[in-house]
Amino acid sequence: QVQLVESGGGLVQPGGSLRLSCAASGSIFSINDMGWYRQAPEKQRELVATISSGDSTNYKDSVKGRFTISRDNAKNTVYLQMNSLKPEDTAVYYCNAHIRRKLYLAASEYWGQGTQVTVSS
Q1: What is the three-state SS of the chain?
Q2: What is the pLDDT averaged over residues 26-54?
Q3: Among residues 15, 1, 4, which one has the least CA distance to residue 95?
Q4: Backbone angles phi, psi at 41, to 5 degrees
Q5: pLDDT single digits (tens) 54-82
Q6: Strand partners, 31
Q7: Which residue, 111, 101, 98, is CA-closest to 32?
């Protein structure tokens, strides 16, 4: 009854910008931490940024100063603004959220379907 839907990926030149969005829907009681991960071809999935329910944030060192994570609780949506993109940012980006469902006591982890970001000339 819960799903995360991502959008905003695409092809961009080095130095360009993209904004990713991820909206949660379904039988949601509350959403705790949300975040973005990425996975490049033949590499492990890695954490990019997280944001808590109180809006505290953490970033992978290589994206600090370039990426900004934010959330709109009224829309159950998390965003990732990506500026000064580099070829090494190329990956499939996945949103992640810890969500407590209605009628359930414990929170569970959910993943979006992934959106491709390609940075190339």
Answers
A1: CEEEEEECCEEECCCCCEEEEEEEEECEEEEEEEEEEEECCCCCCEEEEEECCCCCEEECHHHCCCEEEEEEHHHCEEEEEECCCCHHHCEEEEEEEEEEECCCCCEEEEECCCEEEEECC
A2: 96
A3: 4
A4: -55, 130
A5: 999 999 999 999 999 999 999 999 999 99
A6: 99
A7: 98
81-101 pLDDT tens trace: 999 999 999 999 999 999 999
Q: What is the mean pLDDT of residues 108-120?
A: 97
**Taking a C-beta distance cutoff of 8 angstroms, is the pair 117, 89 a contact?**
yes
Only one residue has tokens 């944001």, namely: 51
- Cα separation of 121 and 111, whole Å? 30
The position carrying tokens 């959910």 is 110
